[in-house]
Amino acid sequence: MSTFNEDIGRVYAEALDRxxxxxxxxxxxHAERMRIHTALRRLHRAYAHTGITSLAERAVTLxxxxxxxxxxxxxxxxxxxxDALVLRQAVEDARLLLLRAAREEFPDTAAAxxxxxxxxxxxxxxxxxxxxxxxxxxxxxxxxxxxxxxxxMEYETMFAQCVLxxxxxxxxxxxxxxxxxxxxxxxxxxxxxxxPWWFIxxxxxxxxxxxxxxxxxxxxxxxxxxxxxxxxxxxQGEPPFSWEVSAADxxxxxxxxxxxxxxxxxxxxxxxxxxxxGYRKHRVPSPxxxxxxxxxxxxxxxxxxxxxxxxxSNQCGAATLLRALVxxxxxxxxxxxxx
Length: 339
Description:
Layout: H1 4-23, H2 30-48, H3 55-73, H4 81-105, H5 149-160, H6 169-181, H7 183-191, H8 197-208, H9 243-253, H10 264-275, H11 287-290, E1 300-303, E2 306-308, H12 318-327
Antiparallel strand pairs: 1-2
């Protein structure tokens, strides 16, 4: 069996050859050349880290490489079909290398892994459609600007280092498939409010288990106004409410229609604010963001304002889900914005 470093070397050699061909192809626009340059820099960085064994550092380089190659492949280029095929395989190889690194970090989960990590198992561990508990401070006012400076770097660093736990991969794929399945419905609500479809999809998963019979606010039935925090929503109209009407009310209630920072840090800040910042006083990374990733082990609010240090979230965190969508090429990302 080849070593981790040998496999990185193979990815490096194949991708380097194809990216170089693209870079020197005639008629490539300047913006496309810059994307290829970025991919080449990240490819060199990944190869330079062949001796690194830290999962976090491997994640940073391999996640960034996958993002850059997806960015290159997502644009029309003067490239041969073979060039594109090789680069797609390089993306896949980078993702599998990251899974391999995660297996080394979490050896106790290896027995539960699927032979095919992309296969969504029929018996995947799909959580019950239960809303998550609030982590306090749920509805404090938030300005229509950037995420707070003291949190931006934290969010960006943790997202760059994020690795899906191997034993949860099938379930994360299930989440990703369902978010994509309902993409048009999320976009129809979010488009009028300038809220990305994938942001709404993650909230829908965590608050309602993808059920369209519950309020996006907290999962309460649409047949009445919400009972739990925030109670009495929507204020206007009479039940039963359509999911779209209730979802738009939930987004406005959270002032997301006035938020203009949909970068990684901006999105993660708003997801954490949606559930509450109470995990920070317990020094536990919020499972609302990081469950099913290397950043989260245990500790959660089992009821509103009731924290259990031994309880473990059975839902996929929003940031973990976004990491999967980005690495699969479903959501495109730059440091400044996620589209």
